[in-house]
Hints:
mainly alpha, three-stranded antiparallel β-sheet
Amino acid sequence: METRAESERADTPVSSSAKLPFDRMIETLVLGALLLVAFWPILTGMYGSWFDEHAYMEHGILVVPAAAYMAWDKREALRRIPSQPSALGLLLLLWGALQAILGLSAQWIWVSRTAFLISLTGFIAAIFGWRTVRELKYPLCTLILMIAPPSFVFERLTISLQLLASRLGEICLEALGYSVLREGNILEMVGIKLSVEEACSGIRSLVAIFFMCVLYNYFFVQSRWMRALILMMAIPIAILGNAARIVATGIAGQYNPALASGGTHEAFGYVSVVVASLGCVAFHILMTSMVKKWRAHHV
């Protein structure tokens, strides 16, 4: 007859690591190594894009360590999930492989790079099961940020942001009493001419701030609707931060034209990213305070 202690042990979920025998561990390592080898040309190309100044993906080198830490942070929850390998994971793994072949043959860079994430998800499902995939959904989604969006998306977004940043800069400078003449993305002031180039459009700061908000949401925000709201607010906050950079550059250039370019101009860019990031944090604090006050009066 089964004792109570034996019954409790039987009801206790067995960790996925404990249920993996030695042969399964070898199978996991071999399959993981084959996955890396198969996608190595794609992964090296992705790594190179992080250092391409025209790709605006400088944050990419931080994405993998951040996602790895998120997965490690969930280690206790992962240990409690029983290993339930899924055959559908193998189909997803195959789908990613076929997509990678199609992307490489057609030179669709974004398609081939996202194929790696599809195969990685299939690999986890095939070895550990879909419950493990669901537990790792946040770090897996974070890995999307290491892949540069399709070039046509960047091109259209960059042009729109260039014109918007130029217009906002013109409005703010005129409101402060400075004479400004705008022609497209060119701002002419007394003694200087500011050109809002692609790198100054705000796309670089927008992508970096969005990544920072993803990290901030994971560590400090619990509510799903609040996470979504912070990510949405990252866009206007980044745009306003870049407009402030243009205004600061224009004002500085009125006193010393050399300050409108070079190292000082780059410094304004980094400062605008920091200020915009702090703006996202301030927005979260403000919304949290408002929610608490609302609940105090309506509960």
